[in-house]
Amino acid sequence: MQxxxxxxxxxxxxxxxxxxAVALAGCDVVVSSLNAKARAEQPWSRSYTLDPKGTVxxxxxxxxxxxxxxxxxxxxxxxxxxxxxxxxxxxQEYLKQIEIREDVSGDRIRLETTAPRLSGSRAExxxxxxxxxTASLRLTNTNGQIHVTAVSGExxxxxxxxxxxxxxxxxxxxxxxxxxxxxxxxxxxxEGGxxxxxxxxxxSLRLPASARANLRASCVNGGISVTxxxxxxxxxxxxxxxxxLNGGGPAVExxxxxxxxRVAARE
Length: 267
Prior knowledge:
Helices cover 12% and strands 55% of the residues. The strands form 2 sheets. It has an 11-stranded mixed sheet. Strands 6-7-3-9-11-13-15-21-17-20-19 form an 11-stranded mixed sheet, with no helix packed on it. It folds into 3 domains: 35 residues; 127 residues, no CATH class; 75 residues, no CATH class. It has 2 helices and 22 strands. The protein is mainly β and 267 residues long.
C-alpha cells in the first residue's frame, strides 16, 4: 500500500516538472499539460491616449481585472490571454479564437473579452491597467476578482464569483458581487456617495474619520459594526443601522445577505 502511494506521488511530481519545463521553453505562447488538462497562453498589450476625465470600460468573462491610477493621460493595458482545453492542440487552436475587442475614442475606451463556447474549453483573460487618476471606470466580470487602486473618478465594479476591492478611492463608488466580499478603502466620500452590495460575503468600508455621510447598512445573516464614528439619529440593531456620520452628507450604503458589514474610520 505504501509503495503504491509513493509511486502515485512520483507520477504526480513528474507531471508537474514536465509541465513547468514546457512552460519555460516558450517565448510568446506557452502550452502546458497536467492530468490531461492543457493550457495555452499569450500576452496582449495596448497603449491609448484618453481625456483625463474620460471613461475606461472592461467587460470580462473569466480572470482578474486590476486597475491603478497613474499620472498623465495614457492608458496602458497588459493582458494575459489563456485558453484551456483537453489537449495541447485544442488549447492552441482555441487560443486563436479568443479576442479582446476594442472600441476607442478620445474620451472612452472599451475592452471586451469574446470567445466561442466550446465544450471542454475555457477562455480566461487577466487584465492589468494603468489609467489617468481622474478617469471613470466601468468594470464587469463574471468569474474573477476586481481590484482598483488610487482612482478619483467614478468607479462602477461588478462581478459574480469573486471579490471587489478598492483602495485609495475618492470618487463615487458602486461595487457589487454575488459570491465574494466587497472591501473599500476611501480617502474621501464624494458627492455621489458609496454603494457596496453582495449576497454571499462580507462588506468592509473604511472612511476618513472626518467623513460626513448618511449611513445605511443592512444584513440578513450576520452582524454590523460601526467603529471610530459617532452615529447620530436613525436606528441601530444587529442587522440594520441607519444614521448620520459627523452631521450627515452623501449616502453610504452597505448591504449583504449572508455575511457581516463593518464600517470603520481609516487609521
